[in-house]
Amino acid sequence: MVTVAAEVRKQISGQYSGSPQLLKNLNIVGNISHHTTVPLTEAVDPVDLEDYLITHPLAVDSGPLRDLIEFPPDDIEVVYSPRDCRTLVSAVPEESEMDPHVRDCIRSYTEDWAIVIRKYHKLGTGFNPNTLDKQKERQKGLPKQVFESDEAPDGNNYQDDQDDLKRRSVSIDDTPRGSWACSIFDLKNSLPDALLPNLLDRTPNEEIDHQNDDQRKSNRHKELFALHPSPDEEEPIERLSVPDVPKEHFGQRLLVKCLSLKFEIEIEPIFASLALYDVKEKKKISENFYFDLNSEQMKGLLRPHVPPAAITTLARSAIFSITYPSQDVFLVIKLEKVLQQGDIGECAEPYMIFKEADATKNKEKLEKLKSQADQFCQRLGKYRMPFAWTAIHLMNIVSSAGSLERDSTEVEISTGERKGSWSERRNSSIVGRRSLERTTSGDDACNLTTFRPATLTVTNFFKQEGDRLSDEDLYKFLADMRRPSSVLRRLRPITAQLKIDISPAPENPHYCLTPELLQVKLYPDSRVRPTREILEFPARDVYVPNTTYR
């Protein structure tokens, strides 16, 4: 029926296309096919092209161009490659209690990769093997083509030709141009054209084709079509780039180790967290990394409320990923304490007025503060309140550490009299401090993979203001840290000492946990304090396929 319908359309279109006698010859339709009669107003099902090609193979004679017509049967090869899992245990849940469609979606994270290999893709229009070096190599030894239109007229030769033309035209000055006499004169003085040999001989067409074929092959370049310049990359005919095997996306990775946190007085546990912020985009670009640097005595105050800590919560080092590093990225450190009665300023007042050197003189007051802190820990040990914060301009540290000659750097960051000032100390013969440049330029300054490891000492924190807890207020403060401003001068500092190490993350760190707390491979001992991978929230979109289950 399909073949008959196709024949009906072909014959009808051939006989009546554009004919004014269409209405008069409708009765001819019945004579087209003796199988069935198809009215012109009835819609005919289209031909299934694939099925038609299978049932009606092309009758192509064997010849040198047959490969250009037929599709090569060995062009496509499908190879299955096992998928690598970077964790010891897969993050995909068990399939026992799932709906069938959910199970199929989950399997997309565990099934092997199906790689399609195209054997002849280099012969297609999407593949361009002509590089600039190959073009120059092919052009060696080629004769230079010079055409009359490309030649600039020589001044002396051109003047000689004009003088010769004048001499030849002297005898016919009285003859009108374009007349019969002038034509005869020009014809006698013109040079004859070269005769074409064997022009009038009777030669078979096959012999002429054979001669032409031999002449084409003589002195013919072996890669004639490759001499054609490559097409413009902005307007390609076709793009057939071979994609890489999908893998989990990571930006430039930064390893941060938290070493110690000390205050002038120690009366209660203090909890700290790290996160990355982008001031220009006004976005938080990483999740929080919480770490605990309290002494065992301070941890004992919370024992009734806090269950025994799992090994995954004891991490003091973290790996941050930054896809778009820039001069606007800050590492923000926030401190919290156990919730207690009163305003934030009242709770932070003892840390600003008491000094470690005056501990003996203020012993009674400190004992009273410890007793109050113990009571709050017993009653409200599960709850936290904001306490203080500070920020580190990440690229300043990276650029300054990368410019030093030593293998390691110790940098002290102070927010005292000069808010946000930066200074460095080196364990060498150089004594003193020198301020670091605030601004850097170029892509090298934002490279987080080649700078030297640095040890930072943060000496002061900003007291958290009760009415400025939002992220918008934080972005304003971070913008003020990049330039001298009176806004930060009004914030009262809290003296403390936080030491952290910043270095490029190794390619395959040991004892590492994913953001889902899964152990990454090369995890020899489960009792060792782990390193946490911190999930990134990219400032701009990252166009990569989702290959991991989260």
UniProtKB/TrEMBL annotation:
**Protein's organism:** Cercocebus atys (Sooty mangabey)
- According to UniProt, the name of this protein is Dedicator of cytokinesis 7
Q: Which domain of life is it from?
A: Eukaryota
Q: Which gene encodes it?
A: DOCK7
Q: Which Pfam families match?
A: DOCK_C-D_N (PF11878)
Q: Where is this region: Disordered?
A: 127-171
Q: Which molecular function terms from Gene Ontology are attached?
A: guanyl-nucleotide exchange factor activity
Q: Which GO terms describe its biological process?
A: axonogenesis; small GTPase-mediated signal transduction
The record's listing under InterPro entries reads: DOCK, DOCK_C/D_N
Dedicator of cytokinesis C/D N-terminal domain residues: 42-150
